[in-house]
């Protein structure tokens, strides 16, 4: 590790720290302690234990800057205020995002961003020995579309409607598994941890690295995917991915009148099909088959139509009688859904 010829003052170390963040990686080994301690937010950050000296910290900063244009800059906004062996200052970052991290971003490459943060440095033996970071990551993520699926909205896609259709066609076990995978995928995006996609869903969100910021991102993402509005505390009210998936299953598979979503979807499709068989060019044989099968079903589910002879078998009921009865039971197509 190269030592400076003349020990740097605290202010000079602060200014050198700013240059390091602006791409002067060669000075990292000169200004950072060999046993540096880094204290950073959990979400979207590496393990702080891997950041302990000049080369490792420089590599981390270089990875962050790789997602932005070469002109991206951090500039001082307030301070630094130096007290004893500590310095604190507020900065602003301005740059153009080029793609990459965060992986869940939906903003197009070329999106300009601005966000702010506060750095605290502790100096020891003429070097930076410890670092604390507090930044407005939520603001950055909002600008990059992590908190809103702008791509799907621009294409007119409705992921919630697509998910409901898939659930309507699946048995319960398969539907619950699908929702669990949706929760795990969203958690992986929120924490930028691909390992979560293959988790079993029984560990707590806290154990999986979902902190308060990640919980906000996760709730927003699941709300878009499912169409179910989720409070920011939902992730902690439903403490594991499996419990949250079961909660979503309950919310998604019940209509206002308590019927299952599968039954409601099936009835809506039936109404649409029945409406196509009422015109002059309708398939008469198919219509007759539908009338017969619906009549048998209605006979099992409801009392006999008013005015019908008690005990009259369904086979002896005319098509006109059944159609008239269906008109009283099935809503017009325009009211379906």
From TrEMBL:
Keywords for this protein: Phosphopantetheine, Phosphoprotein
Entry-linked PANTHER family: ESTER CYCLASE, POLYKETIDE CYCLASE SNOAL-LIKE DOMAIN
Name of this chain's protein: Ester cyclase
Organism classification: Bacteria, Bacillati, Actinomycetota, Actinomycetes, Kitasatosporales
Highest taxon in the source lineage: Bacteria
Record InterPro entries: ACP-like_sf, Cyclase_SnoaL-like, NTF2-like_dom_sf, PKS_PP-bd, PP-bd_ACP
SUPFAM superfamilies according to UniProt: ACP-like, NTF2-like
Pfam families documented for this protein: PP-binding (PF00550), SnoaL (PF07366)
Residues in Carrier domain copies: 177-252
